[in-house]
Design goal:
This protein is α+β, with helices and mostly antiparallel strands. It is built from three helices and ten strands, in the order αβαβββββββββα.
Length: 164
């Protein structure tokens, strides 16, 4: 193999997979809800076009660069999970946002890169949205995502969490 051929293959391999977005593993009702949500997601979000991600999954979606990502079927967020180090039973540090009928938990991202991570809390299946710090000061994506989330997975009236 020539150096040119090797470089071309390396370039193609790097481009072929798209953006890596870890896909949660879901089964049963959660898998059906994520599949439905994936089909309902908008082609643009915060003015950014939808882009491919890998692995290809009904549990993930991405827009723009840096990528705004949606992950469906994630684990219960730490502030709500009694086993987690950041569990917040008194809700002293928990920030809730109610947008068009969907209650979201707001957290700074774990990578300290700025931006925010939002996670639904009343749906049967948790949906997480990450907005990188590069989008600070712009509108946020929750209004465009609330309708698809509610259609794919209506609020669970028995949920212990609420924005009220």
């Amino acid at each position: 193999m020539t150096a040119t051929t090797g470089a071309a293959l390396a370039l193609l391999a790097g481009c072929s997979g798209g953006l890596h977005v870890p896909a949660p593993v879901t089964t049963g009702a959660a898998a059906a809800q994520c599949r439905s949500l994936h089909a309902l997601l908008p082609p643009t979000l915060m003015g950014q076009k939808r882009r491919s991600s890998s692995p290809a999954s009904d549990n993930t979606a991405a827009w723009g660069d840096p990528a705004i990502t949606v992950r469906c079927g994630v684990a219960e967020p730490g502030p709500l999970d009694p086993r987690a180090a950041d569990y917040d039973p008194t809700e002293l540090h928990t920030v809730w946002v109610l947008v068009d009928g969907v209650c979201w938990l707001t957290q700074p991202p774990a990578d300290n890169g700025g931006g925010f991570t939002f996670t639904t809390v009343k749906q049967q299946t948790y949906v997480q949205v990450h907005v990188p710090g590069a989008y600070a000061g712009q509108s946020y994506p929750l209004p465009a995502l609330a309708g698809p989330v509610l259609k794919a997975d209506p609020a669970n009236p028995d949920s212990a969490y609420d924005c009220a």
